[in-house]
Each structure stands twice: as structure tokens, then as C-alpha cells.
Amino acid sequence: MYYKFSGFTQKLTGSGLASVYSPQGLRPGVPAEAPAMVFATPTKLVSGAGTALEYMGANQVPDLQRLFQIADGTPVHLKRGVPDRLLYRTTMALTVGGALYCLVALYIAANPSKK
């Protein structure tokens, strides 16, 4: 005997072989036409793509591996120079500033004004 989930009773019910192999939510067959494009930007189909290297730049992985493996005592998150230092310091300043703001807000909430 075959079983099928009934959407009406929310339980498993006995079923025949034909209804088990064609579930309720699935439609048989493939649509005859391709769906309409949603976005207006032109895209290449997979069959007409040609070479995949057309959109890729030069492979920078070996250069970055050499850069990050230099043993100069610099942390990895600061190896690329000024942009990394700028991002690191901005992040730290925002973190410390946010923590101080939270402490000030907590102090104000704990000590209401006496009017």
C-alpha cells in the first residue's frame, strides 16, 4: 500500500500508485517557451558564452600568497599597507565610540533627571 499526505486532514492517507508518483504540487512536463526576462540588462546565454576568461582579470592569487607569507611580523589584516590600516583604525574608532555611547546611554537611563 502507498501513502500520501492529505492537505485536508493533515495526515497520511492510503493512496493508489498513480497518485503517489505525481504529487499535488508538481506539474508534469517542461514549459514550451522560455520565461520572459525579468531584468532589462542584456545577458549571455550559456551556449553563447564562448570562453570563460573573457570576463576575468589576471589571477592575483599567487601574488597575494607571496605577500601574505612574508615573515615580517606584520599581522595579516594589515599586510596590504595604508588601506588596511585605514580600515582597521576606522573600525576600531567606531567600535570604541559605539561602546562609549552605549555606556553614556546606560548612565542616562539609570539616573533620570529630577524635575
Architecture overview:
The protein is 36% helix and 7% strand. With 115 residues, it is mostly helical. A two-stranded antiparallel ribbon has the order 1-2. A hairpin with a 6-residue loop joins strand 1 (2-5) and strand 2 (12-15). The radius of gyration is 31 Å and the shape is flat.
Q: What order do the helices and strands come in, and which of them pair?
A:
Blueprint lengths: L1 E4 L6 E4 L1 H4 L40 H8 L13 H29 L5
Q: Which short descriptors sum up this protein?
A:
115 residues, 2 strands, two-stranded antiparallel ribbon, mainly alpha, 36% helix
Continuous helix count: 3
**Can you count the beta strands?**
2
Task: Return the average pLDDT rounded to an integer.
Answer: 79
- The helix fraction, in percent, is 25-40%
Q: What strand line-up does the widest sheet have?
A: 1-2
- Uncertain regions spanning at least 5 consecutive residues: none
Q: Please tell me how large the radius of gyration is.
A: 31 Å
For the biggest sheet, the summary is: 2 strands, antiparallel
What is the first-to-last residue Cα distance? Answer: 78 Å
